[in-house]
Design brief:
The complex is a heterodimer.
Chain A (H helix, E strand, L loop, with lengths): L1 E10 L2 E11 L4 E5 L6 H8 L7 E6 L2 E3 L4 H7 L1 E4 L11 H5 L14 H14 L15 H14 L4 E5 L7 H16 L3 E5 L3 H7 L2 E6 L2 E7 L5 H9 L17 E10 L3 E9 L3 E5 L6 H9 L6 E6 L2 E3 L4 H7 L1 E4 L3 H4 L7 H5 L8 E2 L2 E2 L1 H14 L16 H14 L4 E5 L7 H16 L3 E5 L3 H7 L2 E6 L2 E7 L5 H8 L3
Parallel strand pairs in A: 3-8, 3-9, 6-7, 7-8, 13-20, 13-21, 16-19, 19-20
Antiparallel strand pairs in A: 1-2, 1-4, 4-5, 9-10, 11-12, 11-14, 14-15, 17-18, 21-22
Helix pairs in contact in A: 4-5
Chain B lengths: L1 H27 L6 H26 L7 H14 L9 H23 L5 H20 L9 H4 L4 E2 L2 E2 H19 L1 H11 L1 H6 L4 H27 L10 H11 L11 H20 L4 H24 L1
Antiparallel strand pairs in B: 1-2
Helix pairs in contact in B: 1-12, 2-7, 2-10, 2-11, 2-12, 3-4, 3-5, 3-10, 4-5, 4-10, 7-8, 8-10, 11-12, 11-13, 12-13
Classes of the chains: A alpha/beta, B mainly alpha.
């Protein structure tokens, strides 16, 4: 029904998608797999009319199609649910669902009752009880996603492209999404889907296409593959040991948190991070993990409580204070709190530590350039050069650049908030190895992660948070996923 | 390196437009292509140029300054008030003018950063406040009787008009600052993504304060130069100067959303507007039509640029 024929895309002289041909069939879930930067999102965005191909073309219902905008694709029946959802926060659910296709009465006025009824009908089909009159900004990520799907259905979409739809969802929400996908399949909708989660692929997909370095490695029915085979196709090599050996932490406390409180997010939080240690904060969404590390880094100060660093109480009112003390952080929100899109990769990397490459107030350009090329080599950041705008890089390379920015300031404590979210296995392994290297060098890592296998394998100790309070502190060597979850669940 | 290519293309595109307009004017008028006229154009653009360079800083931080014209008038009046012959050495009125502008700029910056009020509103307020203050200080009448030492600022130095030298000096200084100073880099970072800049340890408030302060300083300079040129402090001077300045910056490729833009771009923007004004004068086009034509060219230039950027 929908065919990609020899599609190719270049960015700034770099071919990110080599000629690729894939066909998508009605009533089928087609998973696109590959590491970050493999070209999955690029392929999807061409199909959805967001990018124009630099070669090849799209065939839609046996005819050659030219999509010059997402609107063209949508009119044809191809809708995309984005990785970063794009709702309009101050409109209601119904207004968002019918956006661009509002039911109108005579004189072109919007027929509000019809609008609400239409939204209710579409949400009903998806088993959602979200009220159509709620404001979009009051919804959870999962609810917004359902609204986006309802919007696509409302446009009679025959193909729905989903770019990592489960990245920010809880397990129950994922289950609901899967039921929705099954229902869409039964209606003959073609689903194209990307994810980094192995178990999902084999639960959902009918066929799987694997991309690597912008090239199609192959397409196969899911029944002919297994996780090991799939990983080999994705990385192009057998996956060696992903989790490296843990270091032995010293007994000396580097960071001591006592009674940290900011209602209603968290209260009376106390823990210690020792030199050479990886301490993980685990917990469900909304348990206050990000808020607590944000307080330590000075992004959102705590109302009360004490932070001691290297044995001395410190006051952190802004990230500058934290950086000066020797605390660095890579935030969870890469786009909102990480990247400066208009600047090149190089200038993004040196942003926090620019002082080290300055003579007085002036930037020493040659020292800066030397540091940039050293960092790009060390963290194997793939870009056409230091001047390439960072927003043109793949997610994994962006994340590595932000890590490089953080580490360039040589902090003693590194806070990593969901450092591997939406990142492929290859880049994940690189980041795990990096964490290990840092702790061996006597640095400490405060890790926030929703992926329990990661937490259990990397951390020495796990502080489990439940609704803003410390529920337990566990020794990672003697605990398991079940124990962590039991403490994390609200009673 | 795609950004570099795009910038080059942009600058070449703009340069090409300027050359084409220049060529057309050389062929249609017999007065355009002369040293005297070029000096004239340079003199005419220098005040708008100084303002445009100043407001480039603010636009780069994703802000805006609508108070330029009024602050030019207030600085000019303040300068003229201290410039009566035999009262003070010439540095005093100059310093008073510069300080007045800087103070207005810093006030804008403080309200934007500490007050959290949108730059559009803050500087809209400053626009009427500064105009009002200019009228109060001057009693609504032009402040005349300025010393010849000060009005000499409108004259020549080594055959080049001093306002043009000021404009060139300011441009080189601003270019050097943005390119080589940490604060310059921070201005781009804050305009590109304010929250990310804060998370990277940049003092966003300080950076913005510097941008508005520098803009104010240069506005003060423009006020002093204008007062010297018209030999009075005119409380009604500088009407709508901010619009010409912002137009020049945007034509030069600076994004109103912040984070993207260069001083060389601003210079070319200033030059294009200057040549068009001059050409229309030379061709004897009535000022009513001039306004329409200028507006069309401003929107057209930016439209072409954005179209080019998209493709």
């Amino acid at each position: 029904m929908l065919r990609a024929l020899e599609l190719r895309k270049d960015f700034g002289g770099l071919t990110v998608l080599h000629p690729t041909s894939v066909d998508f069939r009605p009533g089928e879930v087609h998973a696109l797999m590959g590491e970050n930067g493999a070209g999955k999102s690029t392929l999807m965005k061409i199909l959805a009319g967001l990018y124009r191909p630099d070669g090849g073309h799209i065939e839609w219902r046996d005819h050659r199609a030219e999509f010059n905008s997402p609107h063209d694709a949508l009119v044809a029946g191809i809708a995309m649910i984005h990785q970063e959802l794009m709702p309009i926060p101050d409109l209601t659910v119904a207004e968002n669902i019918t956006l661009g296709g509002e039911p109108c009465s005579a004189f072109g006025l919007i027929d509000r009752p019809a609008q609400v009824a239409r939204a209710k009908e579409l949400l009903g089909e998806l088993e959602s009880d979200v009220s159509p009159t709620r404001l979009m900004r009051t919804l959870t990520v999962a609810q917004s996603q359902v609204v986006e799907i309802a919007k696509a259905l409302g446009r009679q979409a025959a193909v729905i492209l989903m770019d990592e739809p489960t990245a920010a969802l809880s397990d129950q929400e994922v289950a609901a999404l899967f039921r929705t996908i099954t229902r869409l399949k039964a209606r003959g909708v073609a689903i194209v889907y990307t994810t980094h989660k192995m178990d999902e692929v084999f639960r959902l997909a009918d066929r799987i296409s694997v991309l690597r370095d912008g090239r199609l490695v192959g397409t196969a029915p899911a029944t002919e593959l297994n996780p090991a085979k799939l990983i080999t196709m994705m990385v192009g090599r057998e996956l060696a040991e992903v989790f490296p050996v843990r270091s032995t932490p010293s007994a000396e406390a580097l960071l001591e948190i006592e009674g940290l409180t900011r209602e209603p997010d968290y209260r009376d939080v106390s823990f210690q991070v020792r030199k050479g240690e990886v301490l993980a904060l685990a917990g469900l969404m909304g348990a206050g993990r990000t808020e607590i590390v944000s307080a330590i880094y000075g992004l959102q100060s705590a109302a009360s409580g004490q932070i001691r660093f290297k044995g001395r109480p410190i006051s952190v009112r802004c990230p500058q204070d934290a950086l000066a003390a020797g605390i660095g952080m890579v935030t969870e929100d890469r786009k909102g709190l990480g990247l400066i899109p208009a600047l090149g990769v190089g200038q993004n990397i040196t942003l926090s530590a620019l002082r080290n490459f300055s003579k007085g107030q002036r930037v020493d350009h040659s020292a800066e350039a030397a540091a940039v090329s050293a960092q790009m080599a060390e963290y194997s950041i793939k870009a056409s050069g230091p001047a390439q705008p960072i927003d043109q890089l793949s997610g994994g390379n962006q994340q590595k650049a932000l890590l490089a920015r953080c580490l360039l300031g040589a902090p003693d404590l590194i806070i990593l908030d969901e450092p591997t979210r939406g990142i492929d296995i290859g880049a994940k392994a690189e980041i795990y190895a990096l964490i290990q290297k840092l702790t061996h060098a006597g640095k400490a890592v405060l890790l926030v992660s929703s992926e329990l296998p990661e937490v259990l394998s990397l951390a020495h100790r796990i502080v489990v948070l439940r609704r803003g309070s410390v529920a337990a502190t566990l020794d990672a060597a003697t605990t398991d996923q079940e124990a962590v979850l039991r403490h994390a669940m609200p009673l | 390196m795609p950004t570099l290519d795009r910038n080059l293309l942009h600058r070449f595109g703009l340069l090409l437009v300027i050359l084409l307009v220049g060529l057309a004017l050389s062929l249609t008028t017999d007065t355009f292509l002369s040293v005297a006229n070029f000096t004239n154009v340079a003199r005419q653009v220098s005040i708008n140029g100084i303002l445009a360079v100043g407001v480039t800083f603010v636009l780069l931080t994703a802000g805006v300054d609508l108070s330029l014209g009024s602050v030019v008038a207030l600085s000019g009046v303040a300068c003229a008030t201290f410039a009566h012959p035999g009262e003070h050495v010439v540095l005093v009125p100059i310093a008073v003018g510069l300080l007045t502008g800087t103070a207005c700029g810093l006030m804008n910056g403080l309200l934007v950063t500490r007050g959290g009020v949108a730059p559009f509103i803050v500087t809209l307020g400053m626009m009427t406040i500064a105009r009002g203050l200019a009228l109060i200080v001057s009693g609504g009448r032009p402040v005349a009787n300025m010393s010849t030492e000060l009005t000499a600022l409108a004259g020549d130095f080594l055959g080049i008009p001093i306002p043009v030298l000021c404009f060139l000096g300011v441009s080189i200084g601003a270019w050097y600052f943005l390119r080589n100073f940490r604060l310059g880099r921070h201005i781009y970072a804050v305009g590109g993504n304010e929250n990310a800049a804060r998370a990277a340890g940049i003092s966003v408030d300080r950076v913005k304060l510097v941008a508005y302060g520098l803009c104010g300083l240069l506005t003060g300079l423009a006020g002093v130069v204008l007062a010297a040129r018209i030999t009075t402090g005119q409380p009604n001077a500088g009407q709508a100067y901010e619009l010409d300045a912002i137009a020049a910056v945007v034509i030069g490729g600076t994004s109103l959303a912040g984070g993207i833009g260069t001083i060389t771009g601003t210079l070319l923007g200033v030059l294009l507007i200057g040549i068009i004004n001059n050409g229309l004068d030379l061709m004897g086009v009535s000022s009513y039509y001039q306004a329409v034509i200028k507006g069309v060219i401003i929107v057209g230039a930016v439209w072409l640029d954005r179209r080019q950027a998209r493709s």
